[in-house]
User: What shape does this take?
Amino acid sequence: MRITEAAQRLGTSPRMLRYREALGLLPPTREPKGHRRFGEDELRAVALALTLEKRYDVNPAELAFGLRVLAEPDVRAAVRELGERIGRLSAPPGRALDFEKEKALRLLRGRR
Assistant: This one.
């Protein structure tokens, strides 16, 4: 089905579906002429995204970033480090000592 019909079935707008596509939240399915086609699998994927957004009170961009964290090891590591530094995540054994060592070194450098 075309994007207009898919948007109606999902209770959203074609513009919002295009936005989701730009964020990488739609499976890549196109006709030879470039038109997006929605089958049942694509509709279920978008419906799941909509459900997750409502359940966890996130917007499409936040959900797309969550997927990026899961898919890209460098992004995952950076977000994990942030979580550890602000106390939302506990550091794995050994990493906590490294963090404390870094903190102590920064304090010593500041006293010079």
The helical segments are 3-10, 14-23, 40-56, 60-71, 73-85, 95-111. Residues 40-56 form the longest helix (17 residues). The mean pLDDT is 88. DSSP finds six helices and no strands in the chain.
